[in-house]
């Protein structure tokens, strides 16, 4: 393809090719601080292409392709090429990665112990993880990831997948107020998921991306309503995580064993919170109890 | 050298994995994935001189395909239980059959749907039993449904509502409207039993079906994988029957598949190095290349290093050819008209 780049996030080496320069350049800015290994073969390939030759210049629209594709995925305008690249990368991992159990969850770690937060889009899991990762509460958290958390089926450890954090809508202003503007990507307004702006994780989170953490606490955040904690049984946590995993079924018995062990090893809670500060306080409180 | 050529050379053993430059793996992994053969490559290369990250990826693939194999054999067991009460005899076809029979092409092979062959007279009862056991129709379109029932060699596809797996119930191995119509009765009668108690086609019939499926029933989508199946089948069966080429061509002649099987042998020899043995007696069997072979090879290798299909016109030509082979002109015209009207 005309333009291409290579990016390593956690254990996955990506190769991204594009018909246009802009998405590759934008990725280059976001991922400049990530370790580069030019000689390492790619595990996953993403293609950003024009469905028809003239759509390269005429109302350019970006189709997302690669090793794995979703049929009937809608193309995005070139102004959202960065989002297309990010969606393409997520798709390859979600459908193709088999080494670990994949959870659609954000995670932060401290002292080698991880808090895993799972929930629907809009539950606030990404925002909470991003704010904690910024040392939002004075606690020294390491951001492990905002979208995927990987569980090693052999050791039971959680592994990081610290891609650029995808901040949405109200979270953009909240995070932008706390970080250096150089660590934010361009504002992508009016995408199918609302406004999006990417946050480059802190350098120490990127450096430590290969360090595993023991799962200590599982949370299902729900943004909105009064602050509340609801203990959750192993059974419910298990079923919810099967729904939050993109490869649980494909892994067969290994997936079942990994997930059973995971929900038995760490307590699970549903939490609701009216604002980020109280959300972070709940995480701190429950984490302190869990690792005692 | 393009990635797809390197990929084929690796499988054929014409090239050592250790000789690849690190960045050559990008394209090889991508095209292998696009051809649904990454786990196959992973199996046949094991860990011979691979970069560490490729070795790790290949180990993932081998583990994933082992799970998929268990699931597909379980699906075959489910079909057996569903059809047992009515004592409906069935034969496994394609991927599941290779796995059940423990053939070498099953190593690392992905298995999609469960394909089974039942006799035409049993098809109605088989359908009822499967519906009773939780399979449901996939196609809701009345025209498609009617087309399948009237002209095809299988029931419209069924999917199991709890396990989400497809089953294709065939009553012969090529569409009834195809220019060649192999005899399913003979195929069923000569089927053999596997150690686990499933029935599969006899070795020459299995290789014939593989060649027919590759060259006579479709536009060569997934052709490299089907040809690899064929290559492995021939290799496996030669071990038990040194005269297998003759056995195979004998079988092919009974079903009207001589030309198809000869072409499959030539193509798999060209790409994967399948041994060819010529005979003069009892009938001449030679492997003189035909002009069209090059087009087939080109079509099979029409992928770039990013996994994208190339040679658009060639793809289209093979697509049209597949319809031409499967449908008499009048039926084809009617079919296209109906499809066009429905948009």
UniProtKB/TrEMBL annotation, chain A:
Q: What is this protein called?
A: HprK-related kinase A
Q: What is the lineage of its organism?
A: Bacteria, Pseudomonadati, Pseudomonadota, Alphaproteobacteria, Sphingomonadales
GO MF terms held by the record: kinase activity
Query: What SUPFAM superfamilies does the database record attribute to this sequence?
Result: PEP carboxykinase-like (SSF53795)
Q: Which InterPro entries match?
A: HprK-rel_A, P-loop_NTPase, Sigma_54_int_dom_ATP-bd_1
**Keyword vocabulary terms for this entry:** Kinase, Transferase
Automatic annotation (TrEMBL), chain B:
InterPro entries named in the record: NTP_transf_5 (IPR039498)
Q: Which Pfam families match?
A: NTP_transf_5 (PF14907)
The protein depicted here goes by the name Nucleotidyltransferase family protein
Organism name = Sphingopyxis lindanitolerans
